[in-house]
Amino acid sequence: MDIDRRGWRLFQDLNNAFKRDPNIDEFDFIPVLEPRNNKSPIVLVEHKLGLELWCVKILFQYSYRSLMAWRNKKASKFLAPQELSLLTRSVVLINPECYTVWNIRKEMIESGDISITDDLKLNSIVLTKHPKSSETFMHRRWVLSRFIENHLQSSQGSTCSTGSGIDGFVSIEGIDLNVDLAAQNQLHAQNGEDNGQVGNDYHKQMKLEINVCTSSADKYPCNYYAWSHRTWIIQHCYNCSTQVLLSELQTSQSWVEKHISDMCGYHYREYLLTTLSSQKHQLWIHFSIQYTSLMEKEHHFILDLISTYPGHETMWYHRKFVFSSLYDLHSHISDDDNNERDCESNLKKTRLEIDYMELFKTELDSVEIHGVKSSSIPQQRFSQNYINWLNRTFKVK
Amino acid sequence: MKLYSLSVLYKTGDAKANRLVSAYELNSFSFFQRSSVKEFMNFSSKILVERTMPSSRSSVKEQEYVCHVYVKSNNVGGVVIADHEYPQRVAHTLLNKVIDDFEAKVDKKFWSIAKEDEIKFPELEQFLQKYQNPKEADAMTKINADLDETKIILHNTIEAVLERGEKIDDLVEKSEGLSLQSKTFYKTARKTNSCCVIL
Predict the structure, then answer these.
(1) Do A29 and B142 count as a contact with CB atoms less than 8 A apart?
(2) A186 vs A277 pLDDT, higher one
(3) Which of A201, A207, B6, B191 has the fewest Cβ atoms nearer than 10 Å?
(4) A with B: how many residue pairs have Cβ under 8 Å apart?
């Protein structure tokens, strides 16, 4: 069949491109609708791989049909693992929603025919073209689960416990806090320096994961899948370590400032803050941070953004979250606090109790004075809605 | 919050405009799209200056991009193409500064005769980079900037700026500044209604 032959040729060209350059980091289609004489439609420039549009369908059909025939045992041809792997690669590059093909790759990872590293690498390339592919992210998590398992197994001999052990894998480069150095050293010592190489690989991969999330979020606005993946990493690879949460709070702040109307960024910060609210003790003991001050900082942050960039509704949603949290913090007396509080923080506690009424009034005034009088008409509308929400939601005695 | 391109153009007598010098920031686009994106930004800038009256300003929304245009009474025009988050006021302040600087540094006799990209005006690149962060670049962002009294006309699509009967598709087809690849890029993106049409 003529199509099979052309498909086969394209398939070989694609494989040769990957062989020529093992550092390909980006993939895309090129809008060329007709083949040009003797020029390969597979273009490789500066580690970027391009596929001319006219050949996409042919290559896809060839690869997909070969795979399905093998899988359904219709073809008598035996497919060696190497070839299988290459066929799956061309399918997912073009259409990553083909979860059957990702599942074939899962089987090959289990049998050892595809390495975890290679699969994750291909996965990253797929995401450069398809940043919001849910199947790609889901497959990535399956692979990472195995990666984590392997690393935990290989760290079995060390002195660290499986839970907080992950803390030691975390670098504190991203944190801009007055972290108590003694506490830092203690954490590192706890987790055993003999884990050196294993720890490094793990950490390297996790940094890569965060980078993949960031690039995918940059490429496609409100990329729910990328941010969900990021949350998953924090939960499963870092065990929601306080250190990491604080570091992410720092990192995501600059991202949000550059994407002020992307709800996912704010939602991620809300996730971080909510998770940190259940770690108030660690925050205080290890980092000398009062949780309330984090929320107050967030309040200043969002107010600043709202006044600098009027007319974006997303920020007002985040403001609602922040204000509700602050209000709750100030109006509830928490019972779970430890008894070792010194005089100073006890005084602070009393002050906080009567502060929530002040807080409400200040917030209301601030919107009435600044928001409603804004020169931006949408901003006026958002301000009025917010005032209505404040009055409706918070019954101040 | 991004600025993608910044251009200085000149409105010639025959309702046409010449693009004199441009700066671009295209790193957020995928590698193979960059040349087409650049061509489309030039194409849009030209069309906008051609159809903007001297001494007027406008901000033209097109999908997830906003093109801010200012044409001075002396027919020098500036266009900055940004995303929809970038504050309009800062964009127009930027255009003021760019045009003032251009007039001061480039001799008037070249404005109407220079060919595309012939004039050297490296400050344009610096402006583009500096203004990527509106807060840093423009201390007046929060306070009302000292723009002149000219109102900013808003349009919701580039097509709103065209003459009656003119269609964007036709202009794209006829354009000499767009390569075949770019035109194909435009057509395929239009067909799939994807968000990578830059116009």
Answers:
(1) no
(2) A277
(3) B191
(4) 54
Given a cut of 70, is residue B140 above it in pLDDT?
A: no
Which of A48, A308, A309 is opposite residue B32, by nearest beta carbon? A48
Could you give the domains of chain B?
A: 3-161 (3.30.450.50)
pLDDT confidence band for B148 (50 / 70 / 90): low
Q: ipTM higher than 0.85? A: yes
> DSSP string covering B106-162, please?
S-HHHHTTPPTTTS--THHHHHHHHTTSHHHH-TTSSSPP---SPPEEEESSGGGGS
- Asked whether the beta carbons of residue B1 and residue A218 sit closer than 8 angstroms, the reply is no
The pLDDT of residue A201: 87
**In which region does residue B81 sit, left (phi positive, over 0), alpha (psi from -120 to 50) or beta (all else)?**
beta
CA-derived radius of gyration, chain B? 16
Interface touch A53/B188, C-beta < 8 Å: yes
Query: Is any Cβ of chain B less than 8 angstroms from the Cβ of A370?
Result: no
B85/A31 Cβ within 8 A: no
- Select from A125, A220, A308, A376 the residue whose CB has the most chain B CBs within 10 Å, as the one to mutate to test that interface: A308
The per-residue pLDDT for B13 is 82
Torsion of CA A237, A241, A246, A247, to 10 degrees: -40
Question: What is the distance between the alpha carbons of residues A247 and B132, in angstroms, rounded to a whole number?
Answer: 25
| Interchain contact A48–B (C-beta under 8 A) | yes
B85/A261 touch (CB, cutoff 8 Å), yes or no: yes
Q: Categorize the per-residue pLDDT at A30 as very low, low, confident or very high, splitting at 50, 70 and 90.
A: very high
Q: Are strands B3-12 and B16-24 parallel, antiparallel or unpaired?
A: antiparallel
| Number of helical H runs and strand E runs in chain A | 16, 3
The neighbouring-strand residues paired with A231 are none
DSSP β-bridge partners for residue B61: B66
Q: What sign for the dihedral angle of Cα A60, A65, A71, A77?
A: negative
Query: What's the alpha-carbon Rg for chain A, to the nearest Å?
Result: 26
For tokens 């289990």, the residue is: A110
CA dihedral B169, B173, B176, B178 (to 10 degrees): 70
